[in-house]
Amino acid sequence: MSREPEFRPHRVVVLALDGLLPFELGIPHRIFGRPRDARGRLLYDVVTCSVRPPGPVRTDADFAVQVEHGPEILATADTVIVPASYELGPVFEQGVLTGELAAALAHIRPGTRLASICTGVYVLAAAGLLDGRPATTHWADADRFQRLFPHIRVDPDVLFIDDGDVLTSAGVAAGIDLCLHMVRRDHGTAVANDVARRTVVPPHRDGGQAQYIHRPVPDPQQATTTSARAWALGRLHEPIQLRDMAAQESMSVRTFTRRFREETGVSPGQWLTQQRVERARQLLESTDRSVDRVAREAGFGTAQSMRQHLQSALGVTPTAYRSTFRTEKETAAALRR
Q1: DSSP string covering 282-302, please?
Q2: Which stretch of DSSP H or E encloses residue 47?
Q3: Strand order in the sheet with 160-162
Q4: If we measure between CA atoms, which residue out of 15, 76, 6, 32 comes closest to residue 186?
């Protein structure tokens, strides 16, 4: 009888730099500190470290943060997250690491997953970890970041970018989207949605969704598109026409489309595709239904259509996505049914 492998939570180490933003420092602890497995065991172990021995780290507020670990703890990380800082010095001004920061980053093992929130991306860039790769940051810093690091493919219009072992996010709340995305990638939609509910935030905002740049805020006295979205979510498996959604709000198609984009940042068609991809993900993770049936229930109609949309959104086929969240035993059992 084979022994059950020893359980070890995934260790997330958050690198706290002087001038850090307390809100962004707290995001990884809030998101990764909640997920549990079926036995109630925490799936992540989240710790914070400094580039110096344990002690206080300055913030951009009127208080400091007492950090209990020095940089050597980075050697134990499965994931390292670098939140934003307003005191990056030569990293921000010249694109080069300080000796202290370079020595700290040298502790990170090859193959460790790396992520940044907002201007934390400057640290990864200065370390040469983003050369030739796509990355994002806060829209207000994007132009400057691109000039300082011309070998990085900067996309200023997205919430986050997942490039496999390196992930970057836009400013502030986009860090929540990024961390939820990593939980979803590691453990599936159900776990990520549970964390989102407990955190009282939207369970999913696609990484390709535009940052909120100079977008007009809808007049609260005007009608919204909330009812139409709720109506559509209950009918994702059916053909949904734009005129049908507009009719739910008693608006013309033109007015509805404009109002919808103001409120969500995307067109009704893009939003429907995002919701159908999310529905397909949930079904692929949590059921043994065939790919054809999942495609119909998610509203894609055919397996080929769903395959194209999942490939575009996630970079994987439905079968590959499902296998990511199944053990070999579960997959074999599903195939026998």
Answers
A1: HHHHH----HHHHHHHHT--S
A2: strand 44-49
A3: 44-49, 10-15, 79-82, 113-117, 166-169, 160-162
A4: 32
**Res 212: pLDDT:** 44
Q: What is the longest distance spanned by two Cα atoms in the chain?
A: 67
Q: Which of 79, 77, 52, 80 is nearest to 67 (CA)?
A: 52
Distance CA 63, CA 233 (A): 45
Q: 179 catalytic, yes or no?
A: no
What type of residue is 318? P
Can you tell me whether residue 68 is helix, strand or coil? Answer: coil
- In sequence order, the β-bridge partners of residue 13 are 47, 80
| Alpha-carbon distances, residue 310 vs 198, 304, 318 (angstroms) | 27, 10, 7
The pLDDT value recorded for residue 2 is 60
Count how many Cα atoms sit within 13 Å of the Cα of residue 11 in the half-sphere of its side chain.
Answer: 15
Taking the model in full, what pTM does it have? 0.70
Average pLDDT over residues 56-65: 95
CB 310 within 8 A of CB 276: no
User: Out of 15, 51, 114, 118, which one is annotated catalytic?
Assistant: 118
Residue 96 CB: number of other CB atoms within 10 A?
13
